[in-house]
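Quick one, T. Sequence first:
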Amino acid sequence: MRNIDFGMPTLIEISSLHENVELCKRLGLKFIELNMNFPEYQLDSLEERIEEIYQEADNAGIYYTIHLDENLNIADFNPLVRNAYSETVRRTIEVAKKLYPLYEKYGRYTEQALTINMHMNHGIYITLPNRKVQLYAEKKDVYMDFFRHFIKDVETWIGDFNIKIVIENTDGFKDYEITAIDELLKSNYFGLTWDIGHSKAVKEKDVAFIESHMDKLIHMHVHDGTEEPPKNHLALGTGSINLTQRLDTAECVRAKCVLETKTIVALEKSVRWLDKELIKE
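Structure tokens:
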């Protein structure tokens, strides 16, 4: 199945971590991306159950990556909200540190960092009579100050651990977000996630930016998709993405790849597609 660590997301169809781990093992995958949008994987639960979570993976010979809550917004103008999100990242890093030995034991390319995936929050827009104004674009200096502070915090929190926060493309980066990501990527504690399905659904809007920072690409979300109509999270081989080309990229940069379909059936179909693709090579 190529020289790539393939993993799976936690699935809404499966309520227990044990069942997710069993599925991961059965499909021959290397890791599970814990999704902190789910109630089962909120920080308090992860912290309270850390020994159990660790042991489940160790018994199966797999490791974990983490996906931060998609609502997370470290540039929120409300300091109470911003500080809560910042504290969420700090404590998530502590969880990742405790799970890190699994990566050392079962990861294929451990010179690449263990990843904590993060979305960019667009913020709100103000509707004027003739246009919409993104508040972060209008208040860009304040927005960037928050990110510079965040970088310093993350560098302190991660310290000597080989862990990185990786920024994922979703529905197209805004200009002010690109400025912020450029600033993040100046630090060795940040990298990029390329979600190839999201990318396809927005007509590859972010590809030029990602390709200009290929040395920072260490994580990928792999699922099929189409431009017209815009669809993603499809099983591999059921959309119009040049998957072989994208997997060549992943192999070249040694990126971990989450097979980010949302159902068991689509995940199984994707693994079968990968098995057939390997036979063709």
